[in-house]
From TrEMBL:
The chain crosses the membrane at residues 182-206. Residues 43-70, 211-245 form a coiled coil. SUPFAM superfamilies: ATPase domain of HSP90 chaperone/DNA topoisomerase II/histidine kinase, Homodimeric domain of signal transducing histidine kinase. Its EC number is 2.7.13.3. Keywords: Coiled coil, Kinase, Membrane, Phosphoprotein, Transferase, Transmembrane, Transmembrane helix. The lineage of its organism: Bacteria, Pseudomonadati, Pseudomonadota, Alphaproteobacteria, Hyphomicrobiales. This is histidine kinase. The keyword Coiled coil applies. The keyword NAD does not apply. Pfam families: CHASE3, HATPase_c, HisKA. It comes from Jiella sonneratiae. Residues 252-487 form the Histidine kinase domain. It catalyses: ATP + protein L-histidine = ADP + protein N-phospho-L-histidine.
């Protein structure tokens, strides 16, 4: 089911992605079509502008011809002024047309011919005006053009018509291209709109499907969380009952063990006290009748009994320490935690001060770096850190100047406290073993019952934290205590 769901999700993702790719392509096509339509529009406008310029040139030619005839017929100098003004405008207009048609070789050729004919035509008109000014009648010029004038004028008109026809042809072609471009743009825009609608519908469908799947998954998670919370509560209650039962059992067993242990210790003391008079008796017997005291009797009274009593006393003392440690753990497990804001820097300083005599005696360097404040049980966290620092002092590497560093920092909403030393180190295979009750690691040349680190881990768990070790033989050890920044109220209840 999960595999089919993943395949469906992948298909939806690919479909939506393809839709957006198509939408991007359509958008690019719309932009391209719009740009082409704009280019065609500019070409059409350009053609119209050329046509208008040719028409303006024709009007200038007609105006200058009218001015010449008016002057030849009337002799009014105002016609002459109009002639000269128009003659001055014609070269500029021809140049404007040349610039507008510079991209059309045919029109360039025509405009060159037009410029030459215009110069020739202006020369002929100036000759007729000069003849009028010289006193001629001017009737010929006023009534009828000569053959040369007619040919020049006709050629100018033909060139103008050819230029107009060329621009008209271009205009028709460009308007047709513009219409096709607009049609193409419309088609692409409609296709883009349809694609957008399809992508939107697909996205909405995929989103609704995903939301339904999320809602279903959320409901399943909620059901699982409810089941998990119930299981956790049930398991927690079972653990609390088991813990309480273990504590009661440890307390009862410790007390039950202490009674016979006290008897054994008492009888051992009596046996020890009886050895002295018994030895004196053997001494007197040896003086009075040496033959009645055998070597076995003498050895038993003077060697075996004291040695056996010593073994018994050592064993009972060790058992007494173990019973006291079990009772201490039992009492600590029943103690109600009292959360408070603990200045960890001051706490570490007080621990170091309490061990300063031993630190100075061994020449150890202790570095205490800043540690964040924690809301927790002061006594419990003090016992944890004291045990870790004491172990660091106890298990230094002989012949190596001791160095112990205590530091802390906030990490992911928790406070991480590290106690690092450069001592003898711990074999990696024993990193978990050392936290077990009555288990120790390495050379057993230091006093202890293997309870300290087990007590540390139990306290760390009660404080809502964890304890771990990172070490290698002969490379020192680093113990990391992870605590919540604030002890939860329910963790302070009696368990």
């Amino acid at each position: 089911m999960m595999r089919s769901q993943r395949r469906a999700n992948r298909a939806i993702f690919l479909a939506v992605a393809a839709g957006f790719v198509m939408l991007a392509v359509a958008a690019a096509a719309v932009v391209w079509a719009f740009q082409r339509a704009q280019d065609y529009s500019e070409l059409v406008a350009h053609t119209i502008e050329v046509e208008a310029a040719v028409a303006d040139l024709n009007r200038l030619n007609e105006r200058i011809e009218t001015a010449r005839r008016g002057y030849l017929l009337e002799g009014d100098p105002r016609f002459l002024d109009t002639f000269e003004a128009t003659a001055a405008e014609i070269p500029g207009q021809i140049q404007r047309i040349a610039e507008l048609t510079a991209d059309n070789p045919e029109q360039v050729k025509r405009i060159t011919d037009f410029r030459g004919l215009t110069d020739q035509y202006l020369g002929l008109m100036r000759e007729s005006i000069a003849d009028k000014q010289a006193g001629g009648s001017g009737v010929k010029g006023a009534s009828l053009l000569d053959e040369e004038d007619i040919q020049v004028v006709q050629r100018l008109r033909d060139l103008a018509d050819e230029m107009s026809l060329e621009e008209r042809r271009l205009l028709i072609a460009r308007e047709s291209d513009e219409k096709r471009s607009v049609y193409l743009s419309t088609v692409i825009a409609v296709a883009a709109a349809v694609t957008l609608i399809l992508v939107a519908l697909g996205t909405i469908w995929a989103t609704r499907r995903t939301l339904r799947a999320l809602a279903s998954t959320g409901q399943q998670l909620q059901n699982l969380n409810e089941d998990l919370e119930s299981a956790v509560l049930e398991r927690t209650a079972e653990l609390q009952r088991a813990n309480a039962e273990i504590q009661r059992f440890a307390y009862i067993v410790s007390h039950d063990l202490r009674s016979p242990l006290v008897n054994v210790m008492g009888f051992t003391a009596e046996l020890d006290a009886a050895i002295k008079p018994l030895g004196e008796l053997i001494d007197k017997a040896e003086e009075a009748a040496p033959e009645i005291v055998t070597d076995e009797t003498r050895y038993a009274v003077r060697e075996d009994l004291p040695e056996a009593i010593g073994f018994i006393r050592t064993s009972t003392e060790k058992m007494d320490r173990l019973i006291n440690a079990i009772l201490r753990l039992s009492r600590e497990g029943r103690r109600v935690l009292a959360p408070e804001a603990v200045d960890m820097n001051a706490l570490v300083s007080s621990i170091v001060d309490s061990l300063q005599h031993r630190i100075d005696e061994l020449g150890i360097t202790v570095e205490a770096e800043p540690v964040p404040t924690v809301v927790t049980d002061r006594l419990a966290v003090e016992q944890v850190l004291s045990n870790l620092v004491e172990n660091a002092i106890k298990y230094l590497k002989p012949g190596r100047p001791g160095r112990i560093t205590v530091r802390g920092r906030k990490n992911a909403g928790r406070v991480l406290i590290e106690v690092e030393d450069n001592g003898r180190g711990i074999d990696p295979k024993d990193h978990e073993r050392i936290f077990d009750l009555f288990r120790r690691s390495g050379t057993q040349d230091q006093p202890g019952e293997g309870i300290g680190l087990a007590h540390v881990r139990a306290l760390a768990y009660r404080l809502g934290g964890t304890i771990s070790c990172e070490s290698a033989l002969d490379e020192g050890a680093t113990f990391r205590l992870s605590l919540p920044t604030a002890l939860a109220p329910q963790q302070g209840s009696n368990t």
